[in-house]
Structure formats: C-alpha cells, structure tokens
Amino acid sequence: MLSALAARLRDLSLAEECFGHACLAAAASWGADPPRDPAAWLYAVALRRAWDMARHAKVRDAAPADAPAPVATPEEIAMAAAEPIPDERLRLIFTCCHPAIEPPARVALTLRTVCGLPPDAIARAYLLPEATLAQRLTRARRKIRDAGIGYEVPGPAYWPDRLASVLATLEIAYAEAHGDAALDGPSAAIGLEMVALSGVLAEMIPGEAEVLALAAMLRLAEARRGARVDAAGMMVPLDRQDPARWDRAMIAAGETLLHRAARLPGATGPYQLLAAIHAAHAGRRPGEPPPWAVIVALYDALLRVRPGPVVAVNRAVALAGARGPAAGLAALDDLRGARGVEGWLPWHAARAELLARAGDMDAAAQAYRAALALSPPSAERLFLQARLAGLG
User: What is the 3-class SS of the chain, one letter each residue?
Assistant: First the structure.
C-alpha cells in the first residue's frame, strides 16, 4: 500500500503521512464492520487526504483543525482496487536503490519503506544500534526529497548502478522472514514475496549471474520450509532436518538457476557461493550428514569476497561439523569485539551448541540464556529452551 501511494504521490514522507491518516480513519470508523475491500478503502482515503493537503497548502498555517476523515466513495474504491500494487513495490525498490543515496542507507530505506521491516530488524541485519539505523533512514528520505528523485523504474542502462542494492534488499528481507521458522512473526509473509520478486528479476536480467544465483538461493532455502518446525512447534536445525520433507521441485528450480549462473562469464560472486552452500545442504539424503568439508571450503571462498561476522559465524558452525566443536568455538571466539556480534542472537546460539558438544555445560547454559534474552521467535525460543533444559 505504501509503495503504491509513494509511486502515485512521488513523495515518501507524504505517502507515509497520508497512509497513517487513512489507518486512523479506519480505526475510528470501521468498528466491527470493515469494508469489503479494506486495502482499496485505505488507498482511496489516503489519496483524498493527499489531494486535500495539496488544495490547502497555501493556507495550511492559518487553517483550523483537520476536518473529519472522508469516507471513500464506491467509485474511488473501485478505482483503487485496480491499482497495480505488486508492480509498484518493484518500482519503489529500484527507486529507493538510487545511486545518489549511499549504499547502506538505500538498502535500509528500501527494507523499511517497501518491505515493511521494522527498524530493529533492519538494525539487527546490519549489526547496528537502532539509533544509527534511524539516522540512515532520515538521511536517505531527505536525499530523495531534495534531489527530486522520480518514482519510475530506470531503463536497463541504469540497472547496473542499482542492482547490488536491489539484490541486498531481497536477500535481507527474505532472511528476516526465514529467521522465523514458525511463520508467526510480523515479517513472515514477506518471504514468499521476495522469492517471487527474485524470479521476476531473473526474467528481467537473465544474463546476470548474481541475479540468477540470488533467485536460486532463495528457492533452495524456501524448499526446506516444511521441515523447519516439528509437531510441537519447535525449530529443527538444518543438519537435523529430514530431507524427505523438503520440496524437491523447488530444489530442482534452484539448482537449474544456479547452473545457468555458473555458465555465464565472469568471476564467481557472493550469491553464487551462497547458493552453492544451500545446494550442498540440499543434496543431502535421509540419514546422511551434510558435506561439511565442502561447505567450509565454500565459506572460505565467501569470506574472501564478502568478509564480515555474519559469514564468519556460519563458517564456524560448518567448521565444527567438519573438525569438531573445539575448532568451531575457536572461530567464534575470534569474533569477540567485532561490531555488534556479541549482541547478535546467532552468535550466542552457536556458542551454546558448541560448548554443549564440547562438554562445558555451565558455559553452554550461560550462552543459551544470553540467546534467550535476545527475544528469539517462538520456534527458535522453544528450541533454545529445550536445549538449555537438556543440559541437566
């Protein structure tokens, strides 16, 4: 909805203000009898609010308090229902990823405005304090306003300058949804949409290996959805999932995209390596362990092209699978002091698991409690609680 309004009004701040006004109007007037098409109602009321603000712009300072919220007419509702909102979301992703905005800020703004991720989730993705993330968002919005950036998808000649940020947006938005195995969090619904958008991009730019690889990676990850939670609603770690419950058709689609990417010229990029890691897991059959040595080698290559604590934590887990918990713990402890890592739940959860495997139950219990203190989603919380209780 916000994407469609921003595309129509050409102003992110105005779109947010008018959408908020429409939501307040809905809260005041719907009661127990919402309209047949709530989205269309909200869109129509928000647009009427914008037109009203434009008409009264010259006398706004002297105007009395706002009039009661207008009620959408049937004609407005019918017109709003025809708005191409999915297309507008993709349009706004490209707009927010404008090269005039600093790369981290453009991705953060897109995640907030287009994907609807809350600021704390975006801050976690970047291992940043939420206040720092808020400053980035403010600067990016100001840049769009002051530079008069238009709300149109740029032509193919301008895609390369934006593509890395577009891919990062889809990756981070999907990761936020995927991090909630039980699909009961506020961002759970965005996952499948990011999978679909990655497919649209693969059709738009079929000659770009990293685009194909991102689409492959998201499909290989999403294929495991049915095995990620047990009957009690508890998360099942990847290496303990039953491969028979994975979606083999989706895995095949991901592998096909990855093979297409590999045949294209150019250096291997981070998304090709990430997709290869997922493919290595996807190749496991029931009763087999993951091919940890292969996965460690892929993470080693990934660290060279995308260094950072997130990749390093995942590599440490794979290293523990290949060489034992002591090797994984040493790699995790090397990350102490890295920006934000000691306030990041996966680092604590990984340490807890490896400390328990190494037999240090007191330290493992402390690490599990530290992970639980960071408010994990429901399925992950049940898993951590069960592991903590199992330490004795």
Answer: CHHHHHHHHCCHHHHHHHHHHHHHHHHHHCCCCCCCCHHHHHHHHHHHHHHHHHHCHHHHHHCCCCCCCCCCCHHHHHHHHCCCHHHHHHHHHHHHCCCCCCHHHHHHHHHHHCCCCCHHHHHHHCCCCHHHHHHHHHHHHHHHHHHCCCCCCCCHHHCHHHHHHHHHHHHHHHHHHHCCCCCCCCCCCHHHHHHHHHHHHHHHCCCCHHHHHHHHHHHHHHCCHHHCECCCCCECCHHHCCHHHCCHHHHHHHHHHHHHHHCCCCCCCHHHHHHHHHHHHHCCCCCCCCCHHHHHHHHHHHHHHCCCHHHHHHHHHHHHHHHCHHHHHHHHHCCCCCCCHHHCHHHHHHHHHHHHHHCCHHHHHHHHHHHHCCCCCHHHHHHHHHHHHCCC
pTM of the complete model: 0.84
Q: Name the percent of the chain lying above pLDDT 70.
A: 91
Q: What is the pLDDT of residues 311-366, one digit of tens each?
A: 999 999 999 999 999 999 999 999 998 989 999 999 999 999 999 999 999 999 99
Q: Which of 7, 195, 14 is nearest to 114 (CA)?
A: 7
Reply yes or no on whether the pLDDT at 47 is more than 70. yes
Q: How far is CA 152 from CA 1, 81, 93, 148, 200, in A?
A: 17, 21, 10, 12, 17
Tokens of 191: 């996952």
> What are the φ and ψ backbone dihedral angles of 116, each rounded to 5 degrees?
75, 15
Confidence of residue 150 (pLDDT cuts 50, 70, 90): low
- 347 touches 308 (CB < 8 A): no
Q: How far is CA 242 from the centre of its chain?
A: 25
Distance of CA 342 to the CA centre of its chain: 21
Instruction: Quickly count: other Cβ atoms within 10 Å of residue 324's Cβ.
Output: 13
Most confident of 63-72, 151-160, 197-206, 230-239: 230-239
For 172, the token pair is: 């981070």
> What residues pair up with 235 in beta bridges, in sequence order?
229
> Does 73 have pLDDT greater than 70?
no
CA nearest 335: which of 309, 372, 362, 361? 309
Which among 174, 173, 135, 123 has a CA at the least distance from the CA of 343?
Answer: 123
